[in-house]
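Hello Y.,

Per our agreement to keep a running log of every chain we model this quarter, I'm adding this entry. I've kept the format consistent with earlier entries: sequence first, then predicted structure.
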Amino acid sequence: MTNQRVHHLNCGTMTPLAAAPMVAHVLLVERDEGLLLVDTGFGTTDLQQPRRLGQPFRAVVRPVLDPAETATARITALGLDPADVTDIVLTHLDLDHVGGIGDFPRARVHVHTTELEAALHPTLREKARYVAGQWSHDPTWVRHREGGDAWFGLESVAAVGDEVLIVPLHGHSRGHSGVAVRRPDGHWLLHAGDAYFHTDEKRTPPTCPRALRAFQTVLAHADKVRRANADRVRELHAGHAGEVTVFSAHDASELAALQG
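Predicted structure for the entry above:
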């Protein structure tokens, strides 16, 4: 096992009118072979050109777009060099998860192949969720496919090195996935992306504020599939809490607990 350290970062505060403030929960993994990010939040070009995020998104989600919250700024504040980021692993390519990849032009960008196809060749309905300008620098894409091993009962995971896995959790978007990272002590972290939005959705029975529940349904590429995968994440949390810590991309309380 490599000598690694994991940091939990907020790379994009959002203040929707109908819900509590949200974060863009990003993982930074220090490894012997270089830095690895899980998601990136908003990037510097998003701050310079906020119109590219689209008026509907900005009006509903109301991103703060604080320069101190970009992944490059967060990495620098930790005393590390953003140029040392060698790999970025994405849960999906929605604009609030992938905006920062252009700040790391030499990094390999790992993503489920179904999600990459959706972003590169979106249907009419999918076009609003993807901003092609965020990858106009022609990143080095690394496609990951179905068919790998099982991980705590979740099928077809794909390995990104020895301690990072892409776990298919489709539904929110066409190829949405979770990303699992194993800490040096053997405990796993599962960044569940947008498989759920509110921490109480991990409870049995799950609960979620009405507006946020409706928001998830509207955004879903395939809501029945999304809800089935949310159930699988809930079962993982209930059955393996001592081995896996599950968190979502946007719940601020989960980020605060893991930073504490």
